[in-house]
Amino acid sequence: MMLYPDILYSGEHIRLTAGLFSAARPAAPPLHCIAAAAAPVPPPPNCSASAGGVAAAARPTDTDQIEFNEFCLFIIFKFLDAAKDGFLDRLDLEASVSTLNVEGVTQRDVEHMIDYCLQYRKNLQNIAFSFSATHSAASPIMGISRDSLHKRRATGGRKKHWRKKKKYELGRVPANTKLSANVAVRKVRCRGGNSKFRALRLDSGNFSWGSEAVTRKTRLLDVSYNASNNELVRTQTLVKNAIIQIDATPFKQWYQTHYGLELGSKNKGADKEEAVKVDDKKASNHIQRKLKERLQKRKLDPNVAEQFTTGRLYACISSRPGQCGRCDGYILEGKELEFYVKKMQKKKSKAA
């Protein structure tokens, strides 16, 4: 049984014993090397220290001794985890290691190790702090950075890295907001304590009907076209300037209230592009006069009126769902609608 802690260590703090583990396995420091990190901490039981305070171990030939060293190291790291969480109970430390069965390790050995940890808790906590500090400064894992320090000057010369990387310069993964009924929006802290809202899944948004100067909240039904990448259409990804289909019901209800006309009626006698007049005998004279005035100024794009028969309207997303957490946009009309309809028809003909 080999135990490896989930922490990376720097050579400045731990001097690994040569040959303790094979080269194929990840190097884990043996127990007696923990004492080398801080002079006030004596080596734990069953470990021999050199005169200089740094343990020097020969290549062990006994497998039990290797497992015992690793077992002791495991107990120390259990202690450090408990100290980090503000949790230093002897009984809980014993319970956490009692489930392990290591040959040659008795209950007395476990008690000695826990006594050692509790006696030198401050030094061990300082070691843990120095481990984490060294790891964060010298970690080989690099994140994506959007700063300009790593770029060359306009003259071609290299810039001096005069400061460390900053959190506000990091590059985060794309939101890839999906069209889904399981809505999920996450709050992201930004520079200066400001906030962004990362929409992961959305199913509704506010859409504006420009020619009528009205906005309604409506459901998102489908992603129909994206000029940048067809893959975003296949995966139903909501991004800015994507062409989608929305539910026409809220706008149909508003139109009926505002003009007294029902759009998209499926009556046989009515033309597809024309609205059907609703019986307004129950309305007051004042309302009837108001509707009559509105009808005189009414203008409706035939292509938009035709869409009301299907119950779906083409719209364009104008917000950035991955930045503001909302999917807002406007209904396509006029030349823009004609342009995108042609594009979608061309794409369908190619697919066929």
UniProtKB/TrEMBL annotation:
One of its GO terms (molecular function) is calcium ion binding. InterPro entries: EF-hand-dom_pair, EF_hand_dom, Ribosomal_eS8, Ribosomal_eS8_CS, Ribosomal_Se8/biogenesis_NSA2. GO terms for biological process: translation. GO terms for cellular component: ribonucleoprotein complex; ribosome. The keyword Ribosomal protein applies. Keywords: Ribonucleoprotein, Ribosomal protein. CDD domains: Ribosomal_S8e_like (cd11380). It comes from the Eukaryota. The keyword Ribosomal protein applies. Pfam families: Ribosomal_S8e (PF01201). Residues 68-103 form the EF-hand domain. Belongs to the eukaryotic ribosomal protein eS8 family. This is 40S ribosomal protein S8.
